[in-house]
Amino acid sequence: MHVQVSTIESDVAEIAIRGNSLECNENSTRIKSVRVAGKRWIVLSTNRDEIDHLIDEAKSMAGEGGIELAEAELARGDFKFEIGYFDKSDAFEILKDIKKRFSFVEAILTYERSIREIETNDGADAREEKALIDLNVSAVRRFVASIHVGGLGGLEVIEEKFEMIVEELENRLKALESARYLNPFMRGFKFDVVLTKECACAFVHEVVHRLEADVLSSLENGEGITVYDTPNGFGGYHFDDEGVLAREKCLIDNGKIVYYLHTRETAYKFGDVPMGNGRGLFTIPKALQTNLYVEKSEWTLDEMVEEIKEGFIAEGLIKAEIQKEVLYIYPEVCWYVKNREIVCPVIVNVIKMPIREALKKIKAVGREHFERIGYEKGFAISEKSPPIMVEAVVG
Predict the structure, then answer these.
(1) Which domains does the chain have, with CATH numbers?
(2) Are strands 189-195 and 310-315 parallel, antiparallel or unpaired?
């Protein structure tokens, strides 16, 4: 029987500006959980100090035997990321500076400082302290342009990215204001599409979902792209939520799948070594990415455009999803490319392809990284990717 006791302490400040309002909301939590793997998984949690009775209750509910966990290199000791600084007045000033640049803005800045402790009956005994900050901005004129940035640390992370945030929003709004609607006779046909910035990151994110060993789905090998999962970044940690030391691992090597994202349970079933991708303290462990990193290639964006007789460049992201084995990417703005030249911005509703063939659809990988951050099932994650040219259906 495997027994894990975890504690999470969290202090969160949310600073927001919405139209003509300024808001500040703060919250502190401290929760303990017990997770037992026996005949079945049992997870119990409390915000009270006493936990011994929960351990006894979870053990009796779990039963003996059944679930097997792989041997793993477990964390022991204290770990700490750079915390950075945070001041509410300075945070308000950053948001007000953004508001001055645009007619209407919704901007939400969130700073979370947390302490996570994990102890297991097979040797994990670790504590980690870190701080996360993220800023989600939507600017409105005739259209809406959005950007989400952040990182490990405090306000210094946002201050370093401030000019980039404003420039990205300004450029996308200008493109949207002058964009033409896509010719309806082009809808439903295949084109070369250069996925840039958030679109490229979303493509990689959805592909790697197929490598989660607890929900493993078919994905065919391709070529030309190498993807790592690395615990250094917005979604990073020194050890995962099972107490396993987190290590960098190559998931896709030149288009070939070489490793899956594992929990200790799935690693046992696959005969693999768990390398720190078990997420979640208040559910059964979930196999999930930390930070995805796509290795750069030699292609410049101009060189990709020179390969396109007719196609598109996609930037910004409304959403991305997989439905019925099809990957859908909804870009904020696209540029139409004709005879190897960028013609004009256009409004494209969707870019899509069969997800199982996604790696085969890649035609080129660029050399300038862009980082996207976000939350998946409540867990911090990120992707860092250069532009990726694919063959896809445009609609």
Answers:
(1) 2-161 (3.30.2290.10), 182-394 (no CATH)
(2) parallel
